[in-house]
Structures are given as structure tokens and as C-alpha cells.
Amino acid sequence: MPSKFLEELSNDYEKLFETEIGYDVIIYAGEEPNIKEIHAHSNILCIRSKYFRTAFSNEWAEKQDGKFILKKPNISPHLFDIILRFIYSGNIELKNLQGPDVLKLLIVVDELNIQQLISHIQEYLIEHQTEFLHQNPTGILEMVYQHETFTDLWDFCLENICEDPKILFNSDKFVNLKAPLLELLLKRDDLNLDEIEIWESLLKWCFAQQNINNDPTKWDKDDITKIERSLHVFIPLIRFYDIEPTDFFYKVYNYKDVLPQDLIHDLLEFHIVPDVKPKTNVPLPRKSNLKPKLDSTIIQSNHIPLFASWIDKKDSSYYNNKNIPYNFKLLYHSGRDRFDAASFYRNCDNKGATIWVAKIQGSTQLIGGYNPLDWNGNYGWKNTRDSFLFNFTDGKNISGAKFGYVKEPSKAIFCGEDQVMQMGFFYCNGNNKWVNNDVNSNYYPDISIPRSFTVESYEVFQVTKK
């Protein structure tokens, strides 16, 4: 019953905002020619936001005819309307906003110091706008860096860039990265790049910053001085001893004029004289700090926390790459092993819980399922309440995932010598022609898996507790 009253209260306050009865605040949101006049109530705004308490204090307040006047040209009327509706009702809907607008909204709620929304919007971006966050990693990282409260988004961006650095280091905007951010990245032990690639990326960044030719034979003294100054803070962060001798000779030693001479001497000695150890304490190779790579040509590492969350019947964002409680070991790949039932059972028989993923031919769509029991050649049905099917319309966009747990446990899993991966009446006949007749049987929810399709490839992973 209390929840019903709270809902009624929320609705009444939203009606108060819409009807504007007794308003004493006039807000001018946006810039010409799109300025909108919005009316509100100072008591409600002050109770819900420290920003408005300050804005309506005697020191700040501008009043006309007994009404507070607030001008916010940097906030669009649409976003201000969303924020005010949240302040009045406690409700907010983000799913109709595109990624850039959600990010703008986050910046606005930070400015207005609405703490509940700062955390909520970050969670939404991370869970539902992953593809957008990857589109402009440099710009988003620099934006997040400017806001101390965006801690969740900061950690997410850094972890994803370190796990897949090429989304940043190979982008055209990498050379525009601010020096403090590049320094933070090069300090990371989990930056998943070979050291020679890190060194070459640093040089590319440096040459672009100084607008200098990358051919050292064409440098004059001024060029050398500029590059030395630009590289100075980064040199201790490069793990030169982890660079192979051939790469050192052709890709590092060539730039000896801008590197400390004692470093060049020590590296030459290390590479030329047998059994010589580094003369200074050097950090461990970055690779030793990395998580094992996922052995797959179909899915990416960001799918794994999602699978683990579904397996444990948690919210989709419950696990991340740091706290996954399962190991995923590749048992079968249709491109490596034979594309038939015999090969499937030979590799997957009696291996316990498994998750399988298939790529639909001619598309980016991925479908799959989880069997918490096992596969074996014994003909018949297996009973479980924990199996599920899933569907990614675009396998690279995990935010678009659909999944559903079994509805008829007694028909959850079927094993038979001529059937591969049968769950309900969704199955493969031992080749790349797959059929989904479960729409009629209703043993699993309808998650928009096609009725029939051809599979380009599929993989099966053994799932075990760590």
C-alpha cells in the first residue's frame, strides 16, 4: 500500500509542475532562437538541489515582480524539462535519448549537483550506451577527466581502453589527447599493447603535438630540443627492456638523440652483452598483469560479464571484468572442428555447464544459450529451471541483448546423437541449418530469434566456477 501512495504523490507533484499553479521561479533555458520560459516552484527546487538553494540565496537571486529569474543558456529546454520532472516526481526516462544527449544530461545534473542522477545516468551509459562510448574514446575520456564525480564512467573508460587500446591508440583523434591523460594511460600495468607499439604511439603523438617530421635525419637542434621536452615526462613510463632487440635497434635506437644517453648505454649493454641484467629496478612487463585473452572469434570479453550475470540470475550489469566468478573455456569451434553432431558431442560430452554462441550468416547477429547441466549422447530430455536463450541483434552492441529463461523446465534441454544444441524446440540438425520451432511450443520466451537461418560459425564454452 505505501508504494501506491508514493506513486500518487509523485503523480500529483508532476501535475503541479505541469499546471504551474503558484509558481515563483522563471527559468530561461537554451539560447536564441530556441529559448524557452519554464515555470517552477523555489521551495521544491531548493529542497531537492543544493545548486538551487544557492541560486535562490540573497547573494545570487535576481527577482522581478516577486519571482526568481534564472537564465541557463547552456542547458537545452528539453534537458531542463527532464531534470525538473525528476526533481518534482522522482521519475526519469532515458531510453528515448541518444547517447550524446544522455552524456549532456549527465554534465547538466553534475552542474546542478543532483547526486542521485549522477550515479544513475553513469550506470545507464555503461549498461546501455557502450557502443556510443566507444565511438569517440578520446573526447569522452577528456570530458570525464574534467568531472571528479564521474568516477564510474572514468573507471569504465580506462578499463575498456586498457583492455582494447586500439579503439583509442588507432583513432585519428589519439594525437589530440591531452598530455596528463596520456601519462595516466602509460602508467597502467594493464595497458594491453606490446611495448614497442606503446613507444611508436608515443612518438606519433609527440610528432603531431610539435608538428615535426618523424624522420630524425631531418631534425635540427630546435626540433631535438622540442621533442626531448615533449617526451621527458613519458620516458620513465616506457618499459624499454621489454622491447625485442630487433625492434630496439630499428625503432628505438634511431631516436637516440632525444633519449637520455645513460638509458641508451644501459639498453645497448643489456641487448649486446650476455647475461647482463638491467642496472635499475624496472617494472614488470605489462603482459604479466593482463587477464587471459578470451579464446573466441565470435564474442568479445565484454560479453562475459553479461553471461555471468545471467547465469547467476542477476541484473545484466551485476558483474564486470574484475569480478567474474566463472571461467569460460572453449570446447568446440565449428571452424576448427567438424561442423556436425558427432564432433560436437566428442568435444562437449559430459563437460558440465556450457554456454554456446552462434553467428548468423550474412549478419552481425549472435544467438546462443546456456545449459547448466551437460551434453551427452543419451537420447532424451533434461529438466532444469536455469537454462536460457539469448539474442544480440548486433553482436558488438551488448546493450541490445534479449534473453529469456526456460518456461517449461521439463523440456529445457534435449540430447540425442543427431541433434546439436537442442533447447526446447530450438535446434540444429548437425550442420549449419538451424530451426526455431519454439515460437509455437512456448518452452522458452520469444526473444526474436528467426524461425530458420544459416549459421556461419558457432562456439561452445565450458563454464566452471573459479
From TrEMBL:
Record domain TLDc: where: 297-464
TM region positions: none
Domain of life: Eukaryota
Domain BTB, first and last residues per copy: 23-96
Signal sequence, start to end: none
The protein's name in its UniProt record: Btb/poz domain-containing protein 19-like
Originating species: Rhizophagus irregularis (strain DAOM 181602 / DAOM 197198 / MUCL 43194)
